[in-house]
UniProtKB/TrEMBL annotation:
<feature type="region of interest" description="Disordered">
    <location>
        <begin position="76"/>
        <end position="99"/>
    </location>
</feature>
<feature type="domain" description="DUF6596">
    <location>
        <begin position="180"/>
        <end position="280"/>
    </location>
</feature>
<dbReference type="InterPro" id="IPR007627">
    <property type="entry name" value="RNA_pol_sigma70_r2"/>
</dbReference>
<keyword id="KW-0805">Transcription regulation</keyword>
<dbReference type="InterPro" id="IPR011990">
    <property type="entry name" value="TPR-like_helical_dom_sf"/>
</dbReference>
<feature type="domain" description="RNA polymerase sigma-70 region 2">
    <location>
        <begin position="20"/>
        <end position="80"/>
    </location>
</feature>
<keyword id="KW-0731">Sigma factor</keyword>
<dbReference type="InterPro" id="IPR013324">
    <property type="entry name" value="RNA_pol_sigma_r3/r4-like"/>
</dbReference>
<dbReference type="InterPro" id="IPR013249">
    <property type="entry name" value="RNA_pol_sigma70_r4_t2"/>
</dbReference>
<dbReference type="Pfam" id="PF04542">
    <property type="entry name" value="Sigma70_r2"/>
</dbReference>
<dbReference type="InterPro" id="IPR046531">
    <property type="entry name" value="DUF6596"/>
</dbReference>
<dbReference type="GO" id="GO:0016987">
    <property type="term" value="F:sigma factor activity"/>
</dbReference>
<dbReference type="InterPro" id="IPR013325">
    <property type="entry name" value="RNA_pol_sigma_r2"/>
</dbReference>
<comment type="similarity">
    <text>Belongs to the sigma-70 factor family. ECF subfamily.</text>
</comment>
<keyword id="KW-0804">Transcription</keyword>
<feature type="domain" description="RNA polymerase sigma factor 70 region 4 type 2">
    <location>
        <begin position="111"/>
        <end position="162"/>
    </location>
</feature>
<feature type="compositionally biased region" description="Basic and acidic residues">
    <location>
        <begin position="76"/>
        <end position="94"/>
    </location>
</feature>
């Protein structure tokens, strides 16, 4: 078989089957370390054997059986003088894995385990990307600008805490499920945002690998919980933002704001899917949550073929609804951007500056304020606001854009 075809088959299998294999092993052996190591060994074995033997008809089953055997080998090595009966029970089972439906349920349990509220948010992100997403430790470390050894230690400590605290490997009970789903969605949204507007120096301004991984994991949650409105809303939101990715950064590396993007380059298929998800939620008549409203805002933006066609009154109405659900200063600032299009920059500036104390360390607050001051002809105040936004912004494309806008003030 062509080596290139085999590599592609292994890559496809890794994307499709990693979480299933890890979840099946975690259920069986109750240990994330064993599950991760055995899954990695199974894929390494595939790289060695598939070129000669051919890609198996059911790669997922082959990988799960192989990983089970590797896990049993490890347990044998580590428990030579321990209870042989338990070992014999494990060794006995070389049967094929459970049907995919059951394994999908195990993947859901794995996600909830990795996103348990007993773990710090950054740790939940790292553990989810490793155990569910299948990213390597160096890949996760690069995404969050830490050394691979530090990221390895973070993941190791998280797995140790899960074991020591006996965090259950299960889907939460019905009464706990809404809060736990919210925690999972928070992790996935943070992963997506880091890819959408990468914050670290020396990184690409847009990390397509992270946005794609966040969307893939959210699709998994949506497939497992199709009736959860906020899961649907988050998936729609991600798709509608991701559809604009190729239009967001110019060739020279400068950020292109929404109003100046080439809308003909947006991914229309992705937008259509996002719109369909938004419509599905509207049809239920159930009051929307935060992600559903944000998805609706983005649906309005992506419905306009030209920025001049944007229905700003609808955008403001949606933000009014969002403020009632999430009365945060950041939402208020985002609302002010739309208000400026309806009522003018002076009204919007007053609304923004009410949150000066709470948002002084937030670069988007200063960037928004700078743009409003520029539109009002208040050059010196605008320059100071741009300086503060540039100081706080971590994204190279955004810094380039803000710097150009600030420098244009000198030519006014």
């Amino acid at each position: 078989m062509n080596p290139v075809d085999v590599r592609e088959a292994v890559t496809r299998a890794h994307r499709a089957e990693w979480a299933r294999v890890v979840a099946a092993l975690t259920r069986r052996f109750g240990d994330l370390d064993i599950a991760e190591e055995a899954a990695a060994e199974a894929f390494a074995t595939a790289v060695e054997r598939w070129p000669a033997d051919g890609v198996p008809p059911n790669p997922g089953a082959w990988l799960t059986v192989t990983a089970n055997r590797r896990a049993i080998d490890r347990i044998r090595r580590e428990s030579k003088r321990e209870d042989k009966q338990r070992e014999a029970q494990m060794v006995h089972d070389d049967d094929p894995p459970e049907p995919l439906g059951a394994i999908d349920d195990e993947r859901l349990r794995l996600i909830f385990t990795c996103c348990h509220p007993a773990l710090a948010v950054q740790t939940r992100i790292a553990l989810t990307l490793r155990m569910v997403g299948g990213l390597t430790v160096p890949e996760i470390a690069r995404a969050y600008l830490v050394q691979p050894t530090a990221m390895e230690q973070r993941i190791t400590r998280a797995k140790a805490k899960i074991k020591a605290a006996r965090i259950p490997y299960r889907v939460p009970s019905a009464e706990d499920l809404p809060a736990r789903v919210a925690g999972v969605l928070t992790v996935l949204y943070l992963v997506f945002n880091e890819g959408y507007l990468a914050t670290g120096p020396g990184t690409d301004p847009v990390r397509g690998d992270l946005t794609a991984e966040a969307i893939r994991l959210t699709r998994l949650i949506h497939a497992l919980l199709p009736d959860d409105g906020e899961v649907t809303g988050l998936l729609a939101l991600m798709l509608l933002i991701e559809a604009r990715r190729t239009a967001r950064v110019a060739i020279d590396g400068e950020l292109i704001p929404l109003g100046e993007q080439d809308r003909g380059s947006w991914d229309r298929a992705m937008i259509a899917e996002g719109h369909q998800l938004v419509r599905e939620r509207l049809a239920t008549g159930v009051a929307p949550g935060r992600y559903q409203i944000l998805a609706a805002v983005n649906a309005v933006h992506t419905s306009a073929r030209d920025v001049r066609d944007t229905d700003w009154s609808q955008v403001v109405a949606l933000y009014d609804q969002l403020v009632r659900v999430d009365p945060s200063p950041i939402i208020a600032v985002n609302r002010a951007v739309a208000v400026a299009e309806l009522d003018g920059p002076e009204v919007a500036l007053a609304a923004v500056e009410r949150h000066a104390d709470a948002l002084d360390g937030y670069h988007a607050y200063h960037a928004t304020r700078a743009d409003l001051l520029r539109r009002l002809g208040l050059g010196e105040r605008a320059r100071a606001a741009y300086d503060r936004a540039i100081e706080l912004a971590g994204n190279s494309a955004e810094v380039a854009y803000l710097t150009r806008r600030r420098d244009q003030l000198g030519h006014a």
